[in-house]
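Record type: monomer structure entry
Structure origin: computed from sequence
Chain ID: A
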Amino acid sequence: MGVSPENEPLVQQLIKLLVELLRYDEAEQVTRESLQRHPGSVSLQLTLADVYFRQGKDSHALAIVETLGMGKDADPRAMVMHARLLQRTGDIRGAVSTYREAVEHDEDVADVDLASLLGIADFGAEELSEAADFHDAVAEFADRLDDEEDESPSVLSERPEQGFDSVGGMEGVKDEIRVKIIYPLQHADMYAAYGKKVGGGILLYGPPGCGKTHLARATAGEVKSTFISVGISDVLSMWMGSSEKNLNAVFQKARGSKPCVLFFDEVDALGASRADMKRTAGRHLINQFLSELDGVDADNEGVLCLAATNTPWHLDTAFRRPGRFDRVIFVPPPDGQARQEILDLQLNGKPTDNVDTRKIASKTADYSGADLKAVVDRAVEVKLHEAVKIGMPKPIGTKDLLKAAKQVRPTTREWFSAARNHALYANEGGLYDEILDYLKIKR
């Protein structure tokens, strides 16, 4: 298959990248130009409607989807987008009817998020066809709420294959995890001889985008264990007492999958300081969390707990007591060597031309791993745009990445401006000394 402006899949990929970068004006221009070459492409017409929708140009999008979503040859994808437009304008009844008809034509176009907005989440095509109107759908949805109250959280477990080799830099952090988690698991007999159990927890904190979640997953890959990642939505519930039940179910699943790395992302949302709370419900959840960490009613041996937060100062101090998240590790932005490794990993498999990642790393101080990914993505997007225009791919060079780096601002600086105050004025027991060391502030 040739690579040229006539190559519709390549154009679609470019449009997708532009949309991900929120560059909707350019996405619209590229789509319209491609439609001039492929005027009968339904896929491109739907893409243009989606770009219009994201820009708030509802009348433009409506003109497309009404044409494609009517008649005996109506496209179910266009009907779903039509339903989305109707929902945004407040015509819920019309949106439910249009969405129901689309799913009846093709179950594969079902949109969970849209169905949830319409009050018909989790309805299949057969159930939708039985709902006469919006009120019936809402009533049927309400009938299910009592059943959903008792359902356990559907957290997923996995066995990651990639270990610490997939994590650029952070050697000091890796060593801390090895001592606290990996060595006790790999040398369980030796630790048992000293009466030391396999378990415990580590709290990772630092600026967003610096690889805390990836590091947790790599830890599980390093010891060939089960990995369970827990988010806020997996635990918090609107029902009284259900959040505590959900949390218990998560720990029970981890205990049944030993050895297991149990990772809590944004743990401060589940364990905020009780001193700041006015509602007793939040206090009950924290008490349940602490009880689960202590293994009051169950044995946690073999359950390795990791948690991540961008704001450790909001976490209740009880979580840092021995046997809980008693090892607190600062995950800083990658240093020069780590930035080079991250860039090498991000560029792996992409067409490049003797890229000097060391030079780029020297020009990207304070950039997080996520920032560096954004730099590579922007360079790729520019090259892809050029490839479409000239009809052949061009490799990414050092100058391309340096130019992209100038357009991406490091996101860590805002975090450090807030963290600096906590490290200077609320640094009980030297907890945040590593922040001061990173900022080269004398204590």
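Annotation 1: The chain has a mean pLDDT of 82.
Annotation 2: The two ends are 63 Å apart (CA to CA).
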